[in-house]
């Protein structure tokens, strides 16, 4: 994506001067430089922090080659709170396992299956759905957080009282992983069992969500929000008012890959809530007319693969086979649920479904019977939904054999989208400076509309609308128009100059043979004229149209000091021998 954007602007560096605009690439240079700065973040290749899945008893899947994943043996011994993390190249680094002969304690192990230094005694509850997750600490190297949930010995409104903890893991000077801070309570209130993380809008830090414990006496749908960077801070309590007071076990919290949809699953009440999530401020809101989907069966896990959601259910809390439903997500509605796949097998139930790095949905099943053939078939294999984003999606039973000594349990590893980038890369764009003939009907300014962006133009004179992305400008005199584009992350501004010409047939817009550099500039600017100097001056305007500087040009090359002017984007004019040149100048 970044490479394509770079190519689109690279050719502009070598274009000859055009009428009216001397060097068109200068107005785009700030966008190009912005993308080049983001290059390490967006990257040409995707980081493979989720390339190795470690889960269940002895299970592992390697996705380094996403088109040909294969299983491997691990020392994992878990049911639901499975977690693992690889390095950016896809090499397994750490995973979570139970410590043998202990109650509700885990251990952090490395790629050699050994417990890391101080990595034993990790507080973890075997029944915590998505109750653990690893994330690299932003802005650091070889430093990782493990977030985990364990039962807490405190009276609450439920039979299990969970608390959220975190553990800091670093690679020491000898190259060994070490738990430096362990089992640190992150939050004192009692929470539910699922952890969800998503990149913040800056594409660097994280939002962490857990849910307040539900009860009959307090409202459901209250989320605790944390900001995770080099440090961890509590941000807010977010109340989603389309939830009711629900006393129930809680299933997964699931984000879509873009991080702007949140699925909240409530098993015993057979409900799946779908909400919008704002990566800029962490707010959660009802997805227009979508409230929830409801079934007569318990919903435990789900997955969002646009344009669909998939949910796995258990018929009346019994083990009667695999049952997966699917619904399509539209802009402001959701289609009725349809049965996607059903397989009637006694003592079998769908456990968890999770999107893999290969783009498919992986399905774990729990077999509770004693038939040795069925036990080998379902406890030692994972099933898969191929091409889940297409109408041609299909279910493949027992797709991957995990090994004779392995056993699939209830859960799969919990991963955020590690490669989710910034939500707002490109600033507002008012369009190219242009010329229109008087009484000609005007010209279109701006660029194509972007969903969820609001637009405001000033001044209003000569515009057919002031709240759309691309109005028609038909002024009676040359005018600067200023665009304010607002999204959930902030306000962005840009401007465009519309020159009004009498269009008498004469060349009234002959370009000034000039060059200004550098652009962007920190304050020192050079203006170079390539023809004899006659009645030339340089004028600088802010986004309100106010002139902030004017310099008479008396030589073919003039140095201008703009260091006392505030940083920002400005419009400039060069008047020379009756001709006019306009453009943008960025002060940094």
The largest pleated sheet is described as: 5 strands, antiparallel
CATH architecture classification name of the domain at 2-41 and 423-587: Sandwich
Q: What's the CATH superfamily of the domain at 2-41 and 423-587, by name?
A: Immunoglobulins
**Through-space gap between termini:** 26 Å
**Which CATH class of the domain at 2-41 and 423-587 is shown?**
Mainly Beta
Mean pLDDT metric: 81
**What is the general shape?**
elongated
Q: What is the helical fraction, as a range of percent?
A: under 10%
The gyration radius over C-alpha positions equals 30 Å
Content-based structural category: mainly beta
Task: Tell me how many strands there are.
Answer: 41
The percentage of residues in β strands lies in 35-45%
**Uncertain residue segments:** 1-44, 504-511
Tally of separate helices: 3
Question: How would you briefly describe this protein structure?
Answer:
This protein is mostly beta strands and 588 residues long. The chain has three helices and 41 strands.
Indicate the topology.
Layout (H helix, E strand, L loop, with lengths): L1 H9 L14 H18 L9 E4 L3 E4 L7 E2 L12 E3 L5 E7 L6 E6 L11 E2 L8 E5 L6 E9 L10 E10 L5 E9 L10 E4 L6 E6 L10 E7 L3 E8 L13 E3 L5 E6 L4 E7 L6 E3 L5 E3 L3 E8 L2 E7 L6 E8 L9 E7 L3 E8 L5 E7 L4 H8 L1 E6 L7 E8 L32 E4 L5 E2 L9 E5 L13 E2 L5 E9 L2 E12 L12 E4 L6 E6 L6 E6 L5 E7 L3 E5 L6 E9 L2 E9 L1
Parallel strand pairs: 29-34
Antiparallel strand pairs: 1-2, 2-3, 4-5, 5-6, 6-7, 8-9, 9-10, 10-11, 12-13, 13-14, 14-15, 16-17, 17-18, 18-19, 18-20, 21-22, 22-23, 23-24, 25-26, 26-27, 27-28, 30-32, 31-33, 33-34, 35-36, 36-39, 37-38, 37-40, 40-41
Helix pairs in contact: 1-2
């Amino acid at each position: 994506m970044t490479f394509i954007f770079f190519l689109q602007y690279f050719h502009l560096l070598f274009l000859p001067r055009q009428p009216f605009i001397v060097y068109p690439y200068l107005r785009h240079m700030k966008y190009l430089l912005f993308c080049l700065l983001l290059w390490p973040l967006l990257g040409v290749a995707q980081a493979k922090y989720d390339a190795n899945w470690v889960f269940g008893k002895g299970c592992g899947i390697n996705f380094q080659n996403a088109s040909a994943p294969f299983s491997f043996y691990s020392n994992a011994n878990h049911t639901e709170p499975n977690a693992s993390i690889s390095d950016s190249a896809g090499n397994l680094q750490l995973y979570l396992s139970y410590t043998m002969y202990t109650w509700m304690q885990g251990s952090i192990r490395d790629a050699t299956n050994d417990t890391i230094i101080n990595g034993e005694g990790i507080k973890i509850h075997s029944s915590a759905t998505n109750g653990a997750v690893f994330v690299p600490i932003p802005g650091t190297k070889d430093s990782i957080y493990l977030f985990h949930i364990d039962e807490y010995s405190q009276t609450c409104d439920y039979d299990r009282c969970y608390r959220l903890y975190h553990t800091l893991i670093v690679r020491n000077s000898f190259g060994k992983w070490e738990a430096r801070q362990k089992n640190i309570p992150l939050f004192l209130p009692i929470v539910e069992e699922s952890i969800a993380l998503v990149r913040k809008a800056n594409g660097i830090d994280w939002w962490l969500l857990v849910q307040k414990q539900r009860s009959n006496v307090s409202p459901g749908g209250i989320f605790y929000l944390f900001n995770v960077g080099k440090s961890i801070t509590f941000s807010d309590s977010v109340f989603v008012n389309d939830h009711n007071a629900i006393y129930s076990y809680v299933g997964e919290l699931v984000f879509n890959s873009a991080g702007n949809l949140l699925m909240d699953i409530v098993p015993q009440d057979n409900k799946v809530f779908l909400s919008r999530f704002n990566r800029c401020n962490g707010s959660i809101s009802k997805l227009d007319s979508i409230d929830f989907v409801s079934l007569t069966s318990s919903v435990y896990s789900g997955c969002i693969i646009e344009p669909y959601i998939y949910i796995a259910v258990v018929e009346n809390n019994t083990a009667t086979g695999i049952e997966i439903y699917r619904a399509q997500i539209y802009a402001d509605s959701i289609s009725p649920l349809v049965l996607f796949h059903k397989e009637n097998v006694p003592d079998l139930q769908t456990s968890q479904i999770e999107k893999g790095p290969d783009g498919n949905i992986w399905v774990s099943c729990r077999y509770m019977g004693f038939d040795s053939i069925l036990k080998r078939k379902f406890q030692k294999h994972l099933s898969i939904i191929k091409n889940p984003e297409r109408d041609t999606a299909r279910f493949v039973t027992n797709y991957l054999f995990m090994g004779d000594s392995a056993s699939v349990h209830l859960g799969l590893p919990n991963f955020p989208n590690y490669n989710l980038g910034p939500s707002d890369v490109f600033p507002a764009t008012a369009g190219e400076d242009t010329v229109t003939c008087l009484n000609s009907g005007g010209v279109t300014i701006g660029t194509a509309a972007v969903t969820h962006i609001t637009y405001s133009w000033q001044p209003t004179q000569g515009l057919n609308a002031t709240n759309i992305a691309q109005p028609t400008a038909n002024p009676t005199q040359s005018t600067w128009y200023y665009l304010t584009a607002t999204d959930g992350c902030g306000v962005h501004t840009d401007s465009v100059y519309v020159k009004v010409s009498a269009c008498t047939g004469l060349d009234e817009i002959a370009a000034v043979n000039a060059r200004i550099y550098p652009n962007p500039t920190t304050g020192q600017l050079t203006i170079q004229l390539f023809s004899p100097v006659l009645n030339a001056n340089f004028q600088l305007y802010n986004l309100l149209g106010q002139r902030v500087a004017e310099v008479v040009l008396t030589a073919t090359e003039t140095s201008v000091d703009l260091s006392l002017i505030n940083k920002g984007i400005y419009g400039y004019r060069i008047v020379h021998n009756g001709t006019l040149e306009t453009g943008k100048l960025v002060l940094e």
